[in-house]
Hints:
Elements: E1 8-12, H1 22-25, H2 36-49, E2 53-56, H3 72-80, E3 87-93, H4 99-112, E4 118-122, H5 127-131, H6 140-158, E5 166-169, E6 174-176, E7 186-187, E8 192-193, E9 208-212, E10 223-226, E11 237-246, H7 250-263, E12 273-277, H8 279-289, E13 295-300, H9 303-320, H10 333-337
Parallel strand pairs: 1-2, 1-13, 2-3, 3-4, 4-9, 9-10, 10-11, 11-12, 11-13
Antiparallel strand pairs: 5-6, 7-8
Amino acid sequence: MTAARPLLLAVDLDGDGAHPAAWRDAGRPPxxxxxxxxxxxxxxxxEAAGFALATFADAPLPPPDAAGRLEAGTRAAFASTIxxxxxxxxxxxxxxTEPFHLATQLASLDHASKGRxxxxxxxxADAASLATIGAAxxxxxxxxxxxxxxxDVARALWDSWEDDAVIKESATxxxxxxxxxxxxxxxxASFTVKGPLITPRPPQGQVVVLAAASLxxxxxxxxxxxxxxxxxxxxxxxxxxxxxxxxxxxxxxxDRAARLDEGAPWPRTxxxxxxxxxxxxxxxxxxSLAGRVDxxxxxxxxxxxxxxxxxxxxxxxxASDGLxxxxxxGGTLRDVLGLPRPASRHTTAT
Length: 350
């Protein structure tokens, strides 16, 4: 990893923005975030700006300070019909989503997007979230096992169909070769899955997996999300998390942040970068991360205000330095991220 390598840029498009009071400053009715038009505009703007990946935050409970949110997988599926370059990554929680359905939903998204699906691993484990499924909060060790087990079974299910399992033999009337579709027979600490998946293998072979460093999933993630770039030796790509409040001057940005915080404070994540200032200042901060991380996931405070500034001022400034390269149409997300397409674990066996 060198400073000359372009940064891979992702943006979170949840609701009206990352700030809890974003809906107060979005310039549209609070319920608009639950319609298709707002999502369509945000996704189109992110793709036109040249972001490699759009993520869609989610949680088992609705946001406390907003009108609510649509389920992340549904938003990503809708976005797949109106985009052709940007990757799409819903946050799906291993603690409240049945593992087989989670893997199926993500494989279906990869087919719908022609290979642009990713998964932000969520692990909500508070009592209120788990009460939605009648479960008790696990201890730290049990939660760690659950996260690892769900990632492992999802990957096993994505491999359960070999790439050439679908044969479509008109002469014999066979659609698939049953010998190339495999039971996974997975047994985790709290669940078992027989398999196989109900959809053919995803176009990418394996959907791209993003997980926070705090989840401690070892080498199971393709992209590790870090709050503080520390130069640690990690498997896969490393993306820094950066929260953003932008304005024409640093004073105006500080005023914006203060007004938003009057509506609802924006909690600080220890170690996470938060830029409250100008687009030029953000571009300089991102330049300083080049060579320390492979990419950055930006969290705009208010989408209607900060996403246009990112598109107009920040990404073009990075592109002029060779630190930003928009994805080309027709490629998979793995192509954009420089990740190889893994072979099925069953290929050599058959």
